[in-house]
Amino acid sequence: MKLAPILDPNARKPGPKPAQVDLHKVFFIGTAIWLLLGIICLALVIAGRHMVSALVVCIAGMIIGILLLVWEHFNRWNYRRLANQKQ
């Protein structure tokens, strides 16, 4: 193990450029999956199965997904700007 990069920050290799990503797609697909699973769990609860805890987890996943979509909407400019910076 080389100690030069640890002791001297100027000896470090440059880090990779940040990748341009679309978090809206990721958060939307994840929320849609939670919605689908929530519908399945709701059908099982109505059918008499004891899946209430799984339904609560699906609802929590949907709420978190919606909150992440709102966050992404307001912060899209920031994370896209960081990916476009030249190093």
From TrEMBL:
Positions of transmembrane segments: 26-46, 52-71
Keywords for this protein: Membrane, Transmembrane, Transmembrane helix
Top-rank lineage group of the source organism: Bacteria
Identification of the protein by name: DUF2530 domain-containing protein
